[in-house]
């Protein structure tokens, strides 16, 4: 029963105190305002968050900072950078492993691979999304609203199902490959390659890039573009000098919404990439499920969360007023 | 001051939106250095006319000429015209200096020259030293000035102004009216100004164009428009008026409010229905026994410079402006000199006094 949640007494006390503080807050608020205040409407959500967000976080931090017998240690975090670890995890191909072991950076490979794939995915999404959003936000385009639906409808379907649909498209005897072979790419292969994973990521995350940009663009005062044209700017110059600078909040928000899930994705790598190269998400998943090493898995999750937090903070600087409606 | 050469000619301009006609055969010319005001109630087509000249709308039919060249299809960025927008439309991502420099930078002008011109403009609009400020940190009046500077710095042939003072309070508006007029005279630029405020139009314009429902009703200088309104609508829109239905008995004699009045108008024929317009300040209060009409004072309002009294003669309730006040309920005589009775052809669809007998 080692991996039942056996938290030390202080963790329970901490959670108890949190819940007590919450209850006190509610009581004080009701008393002071002689009735129900608006902010109380947030109480159910706050309670939910404490139970299902704060508590798991505490559990993760606890496991990350203890060893198998529950004693405090920083070894898990140190092991994250340790080359021996990846061999135990049975990670990448033997050749890669040997190379990594020589360099002494085992977990770095999946980590960098995840970041690189997420970066590529974000860039591709941005390049695809910006013109689309521009088109959708153009008031003169009466058909633009049907395009919005085109992007929304796939989101009604479950991600896993959607990805299976992509598999059918990309498998070795599938229509896409056959077509590629027909036009001369004899060795064309998509399934189980990083390209397939990337295509899947872009497909799944593209709407999260389009919508924040679309929202900002559609709120853009058309008088500003008229003013720009009036002052001598051709449509192209107006795009560069007015529309683009003013849509930065939407772009920042879109980058956040795509990059975050892209870094942490692991199902797409399993379903489309055949897990040939591990991503950080796969590594964490395997550490929990295959190795049953909760301490190490928690430590890795913690590192990932810190990385995301850092990138969020950097992005935040570009949109200080949170105009893009980001996270 | 105003030169005779035509700068802009509008010829038979019509504009339809989804089958609804908002401009109907507009013909208008604007001369160099002229201050022209398009005046009318909202929905009269004045802003559409301005936007057609600015290039933001294309006319459904008709042509726009600029110095004799047809420019109807030319996009805004190719026209030598600049616009001051109703809500200023300042670029929120640029500071005051960069907003004003926007047009000059597009012309790839030398940096130092740009700075020099922007500084000159800031001085002209009384915003010296404001260059580094964010535009959203400025008051409405200051934003207004930045918008004007941003347009004027490009040295346009014509400056189009779309109700630029609408968002300012009364005192600031009056100051800006004078400032704009001064700027226009100093720089010698043609101004085309759109407003629904008749007082603004009278104060600033060389020429006023009164519009209604997509048509031009009258073009003339302010004094002409005020003293000789072409019809009851213009009379009512420019200043306050008593508008009555009357009958032209014969030349120089008109009957209204159940009385015959000598007047100076002629050429309407005999026993012809007409609109009679009398300005409230042109109705004189006299003794009950010597007036052309007698009436009872129904209400008295103090308006600052004058009193506004509603006087019921039985046939019509006159609005009268006078610096002397008669108490409510008292009987007075009313007298109108022939010169101040304005007779005009009755106007279709403009009969607001008909039902109630009041304006």
Short summary:
The complex is a heterodimer of chains A (327) and B (359). Chain A is mainly α and 327 residues long.
What brief labels describe this structure?
heterodimer, A: about 325 residues, mainly alpha, MetI-like fold, about 70% helix, B: about 350 residues, alpha+beta, Rossmann fold, OB fold (Dihydrolipoamide Acetyltransferase, E2P), 2 domains, five-stranded antiparallel beta sheet, about 25% helix, disordered C terminus
Strand content range of chain B: 25-35%
Helix content of chain A: over 70%
Derived from helix and strand composition plus strand pairing, the structural class of chain B reads alpha+beta
Biggest interface pair, residues each?
A-B, 17 and 24 residues
In CATH terms, the superfamily of the largest domain in chain A is MetI-like
- Count the helices of chain A. How many? 16
CATH architecture of the largest domain in chain B: 3-Layer(aba) Sandwich
Report the top-level CATH class of the largest domain in chain B: Alpha Beta
Question: What order do the helices and strands come in, and which of them pair?
Answer:
The complex is a heterodimer of chains A (327) and B (359).
Chain A: H1 9-32, H2 43-64, H3 75-80, H4 83-89, H5 94-103, H6 108-137, H7 144-152, H8 159-170, H9 175-182, H10 194-218, H11 222-230, H12 235-246, H13 248-264, H14 267-273, H15 280-289, H16 294-318
Chain B: E1 6-17, E2 20-31, E3 35-39, H1 46-54, E4 61-66, E5 69-70, E6 81-84, H2 96-106, H3 111-124, H4 140-152, E7 158-162, H5 170-187, E8 190-195, H6 198-204, E9 207-212, E10 215-220, H7 222-227, H8 232-237, E11 242-250, E12 253-256, E13 259-262, E14 272-278, E15 284-286, E16 293-302, E17 307-312, E18 317-322, E19 331-335, E20 342-344
Parallel strand pairs in B: 3-8, 3-9, 6-7, 7-8
Antiparallel strand pairs in B: 1-2, 1-4, 4-5, 9-10, 11-12, 11-14, 12-13, 14-20, 15-19, 16-17, 16-19, 17-18
Helix pairs in contact in B: 2-3, 2-4, 3-4
């Amino acid at each position: 029963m080692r991996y039942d949640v056996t938290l030390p007494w202080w963790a329970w006390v901490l959670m108890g105190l949190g819940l007590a503080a919450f209850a006190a807050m509610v009581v004080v608020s009701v008393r002071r305002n002689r009735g129900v205040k608006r902010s109380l409407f947030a109480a159910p959500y706050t309670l939910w968050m404490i139970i299902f967000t704060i508590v798991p976080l505490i559990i993760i931090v606890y496991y990350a900072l203890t060893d198998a017998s529950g004693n405090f240690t920083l070894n898990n975090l140190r092991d994250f950078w340790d080359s021996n670890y990846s061999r135990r995890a049975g990670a990448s191909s033997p050749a890669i492993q040997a190379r990594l072991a020589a360099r002494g950076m085992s977990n770095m490979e999946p980590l960098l691979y995840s970041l690189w794939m997420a970066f590529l995915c974000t860039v591709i999404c941005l390049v695809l999304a910006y013109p689309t959003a521009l088109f959708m936000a153009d008031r003169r385009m009466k058909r633009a609203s049907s395009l919005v639906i085109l992007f929304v409808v796939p989101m009604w379907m479950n991600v896993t199902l959607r990805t299976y649909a992509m598999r059918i498209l990309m498998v070795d005897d599938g229509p896409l490959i056959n077509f590629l072979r027909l036009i001369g790419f004899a060795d064309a292969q998509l399934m189980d390659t990083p390209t397939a994973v990337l295509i899947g990521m872009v497909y799944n995350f593209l709407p999260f890039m389009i919508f924040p940009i679309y929202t900002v663009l559609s709120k853009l005062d058309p008088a500003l573009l008229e003013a720009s044209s009036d002052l001598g700017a051709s449509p192209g110059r107006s795009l560069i000098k007015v529309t683009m600078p003013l849509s930065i909040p939407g772009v920042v928000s879109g980058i956040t919404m795509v990059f975050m899930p892209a870094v942490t994705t692991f199902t797409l790598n399993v379903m489309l990439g055949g897990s040939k190269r591990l991503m950080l998400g796969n590594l964490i998943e395997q550490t929990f499920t295959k190795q049953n090493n909760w301490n190490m898995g928690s430590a890795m999750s913690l590192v990932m969360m810190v990385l995301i937090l850092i990138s969020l903070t950097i992005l935040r600087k570009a949109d200080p007023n949170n105009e893009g409606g980001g996270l | 001051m105003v030169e005779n050469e035509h700068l802009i000619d509008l010829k038979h301009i019509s504009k339809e939106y989804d089958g609804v006609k908002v401009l109907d055969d507009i013909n208008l010319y604007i001369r160099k250095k002229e201050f022209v005001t398009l005046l009318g109630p909202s929905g009269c087509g004045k802003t559409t006319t301005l936007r057609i000249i600015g290039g933001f709308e294309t006319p459904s039919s008709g042509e726009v000429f600029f110095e004799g060249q047809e420019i109807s299809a030319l996009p805004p960025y190719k026209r030598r015209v600049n616009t001051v927008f109703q809500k200023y439309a300042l670029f929120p991502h640029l500071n005051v200096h960069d907003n004003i420099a926007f047009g000059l930078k597009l012309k790839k002008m030398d940096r130092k020259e740009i700075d020099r011109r922007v500084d000159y403009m800031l001085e002209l609009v009384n915003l010296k030293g404001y260059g580094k400020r964010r535009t959203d940190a400025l008051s409405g009046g200051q934003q207004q000035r930045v918008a004007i500077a941003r347009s004027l710095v490009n040295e346009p042939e014509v400056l189009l102004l779309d109700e630029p003072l609408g968002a300012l309070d009364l005192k600031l508006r009056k100051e800006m009216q004078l400032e704009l007029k001064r700027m226009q005279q100093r720089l010698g630029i043609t101004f085309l100004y759109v407003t629904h405020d008749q007082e603004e139009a009278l104060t600033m314009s060389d020429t006023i164009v009164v519009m209604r429902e997509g048509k031009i009703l009258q073009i003339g200088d302010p004094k002409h428009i005020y003293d000789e309104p072409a019809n009851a609508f213009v009379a009512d829109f420019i200043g306050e008026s008593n508008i009555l239905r009357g009958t032209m008995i014969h030349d120089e004699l008109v009957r209204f409010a159940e009385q015959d009045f000598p007047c100076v108008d002629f050429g309407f024929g005999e026993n012809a229905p007409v609109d009679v317009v009398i300005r409230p300040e042109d109705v004189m209060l006299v003794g009950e026994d010597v007036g052309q009409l007698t009436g009872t004072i129904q209400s008295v309002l103090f308006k600052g410079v004058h009193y506004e009294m509603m006087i019921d003669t039985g046939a019509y309730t006159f609005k009268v402006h006078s610096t002397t006040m008669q108490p409510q309920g008292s009987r007075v005589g009313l007298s109108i000199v022939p010169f101040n009775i304005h007779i005009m052809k009755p106007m279709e669809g403009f009969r607001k006094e008909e039902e109630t007998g009041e304006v």
